[in-house]
Amino acid sequence: MKILRLITLCIIALMLLYPAFAKSPEKAKIAFVSRDMDSWGIDMINPDGSDCVNLIQRTGSINQLAWSPSGEQILFGARNNNGLHDIFIMEADGTNDQPLFKAQNYKREPAWAPDGKKIAYMAYSKILSAWHIHIATTDGQSVEPIIPVDRLGGDPAWSPDGTEIAFVMAAFQKREIYIYNLETDTQEKLLQIESPWMLLPTWAPDGKKIAFYLSGIGRQRGIYTANRDGTELQLVAEIDTRVYSLTWSPSGDELLYTKPAEIDNSGQLFTVNLKTREINQLTDAGYNFDAIWFDPSPSSLSVSPSESLLTTWGRIKNRN
Fold first, then answer.
1. Start-to-end C-alpha separation, the chain
2. Mean of the pLDDT values across residues 275-298?
3. What pTM was estimated for this model as a whole?
């Protein structure tokens, strides 16, 4: 009996010292940044805008969320104790938030690889003296700068099979979307149009299309989609104001975006149905932006990560 009691006490002690990891949401959820005066938070709602729950609250700025493929964790950008913008990680229920990297410096725009083992993000490379999209393992180790971009570029987005990254290249009076192939170390421009202003690339779950915000000479400002090869450019929603985040729904039939209100200093979340073009407003108060969407349903996972991901990562490390 004494031995059994001792084992029980040890188990209880271990449970207190090492709490269970948070699980992924059991139903589809949207997480987003909310701002109220000087307070910043990450909230979660249902895809219809109901049941809003606050996950975390901070005094410093928060932005640029990224959900892990498993749904168990969320990356986010935030001010660290030194006042620099860095990347943090937390459980999906808002617990255990902490810096992802030991070396704290300026990093932004985290994007999670579909295999869940790596992330891409924007940062200045001191070694190369230039801004790059970096790839790192999710423990903050094995950091490699892979894609040189201007400071005003970035927005990395992994293809569903993990072999490509869409990103924004900035130049004088234009922003263009390029696609970088991790296996061949090559990149190509998505669209061949004059003076484009393209932002926020996001891949369709099946990897066949890319959605983005576009404006430019002779172009109606709004959200567009195009095939992976740049063909069949289509306007999905006319939006005269700037869009601050854009992501494809896991089911592939909607786009989720955030934009500022036309009247007051606020920002709200919207969805647009790709078939009907119907727009639905999810939030109606405060300043909400940088929304991300997770759905645990197996039907929402259209493409499996490529088996060549580990080989590709090895090539990148060897090249650098």
1. 60
2. 93
3. 0.87
Structure confidence by residue, pLDDT tens digits, 37-76? 778 999 999 999 999 999 999 888 899 999 999 999 999 9
Residue 201's pLDDT band (boundaries 50, 70, 90)? Answer: very high
Within 10 A of 184 (CB to CB), how many other CB atoms are there? Answer: 11
